[in-house]
Amino acid sequence: MKRILLIWSLMLPLVLQAQNKQVIVSSFQAAELGDLRARTSNVRDQNGNVIAYIEVSMPVMDSAVQFSGAGIVDTPRQYPGFWAVFVAEGTKQIRITVPGCAPVDYSFPLALESARAYEMKLKIVDKEENRTLVLPYFSYTTSQPSYGIMLSFLWKGYGPYVKAKTNFTFGLDTPSECDADGMVNGVKGWFTGKTKTSRQSITAGFVGLIPFRNNRNFALYAYLGGGYGKRTLAWESYGVDGEYEYTKVVPYSYQGVEVEMGLVLRLGSFALMGGAQTNQFKHIEANVGVGFMF
């Protein structure tokens, strides 16, 4: 637990709260035939031709909204509930800038005609940014706690990860082995009741966003991966020379392929993780953690 608190204290200054939104053009279409908005706007291009008129509606009106591009003929005008944008015939693209959002360059899906009116609808949505996940976690199975860390870089909600864990017991010396009944070379061993375990693993895989009501304060991810690990369980015993030693319990010790899966829940810049991990499908461990995604 002290190790986890230390990792937390080192990472706390890294937590960032920046969140952005993005503009999406939800629809663009020509107005019904006979629409007079372009002709009655009294705006013409440098050649004296009647402009193409675009009525842009969005959920939040802001006087700082900007429309730019080579095809803009006159200053856009703000009205209750929409903007009127005047562009020259044949304009192919405009840039839309809304405060707090990344600018969007929109290419028109059809050729704009002189003296025609068009309708555009904008949506402002939360943007899934590139994020870094740093998550200490706790792993537990019967009488064997271990500690680890999960690192990932997510590009728009998807990316690789790497995990490593250990119980900080390395190089456990076990000169003898026994079975689950404590038999050493066919003879019942003498054991003190004390045990030791050594556990290490390293895994890697993929993290992906689950598209379910995600927003700036909430997002759910799933991860799946594999790697290599080992676990040694040893019982303290009386050695042949009267000294204490540790005997490896073969049925409860293993090494080989690790497989894991789980979920990561982002709440703002904090992340909660829960999952399961197994080595060769013989032993299952629960993984839980709390970290940061910034």
Give a structural overview.
25% of the residues are buried. Strands 10-11-12-16-17-19-20-21 form an 8-stranded antiparallel barrel. A 6-stranded mixed sheet has the order 4-5-2-9-1-7, with no helix packed on it. A 3-stranded antiparallel sheet has the order 3-6-8, with no helix packed on it. The longest helix has 10 residues, at 2-11. The chain is mainly beta. It starts with a helix and ends with a strand. The chain contains 1 helix and 21 strands. It has one helix spanning 2-11, and strands spanning 21-30, 52-57, 66-68, 77-79, 82-87, 93-97, 101-102, 104-107, 117-126, 131-141, 144-154, 158-166, 176-178, 183-184, 187-188, 191-215, 218-238, 244-249, 254-267, 270-279, 283-293. It folds into 2 domains: 21-126, no CATH class; 129-293, Porin (Beta Barrel). Residues 7-19 have low confidence and may be disordered. Helices cover 3% and strands 59% of the residues.
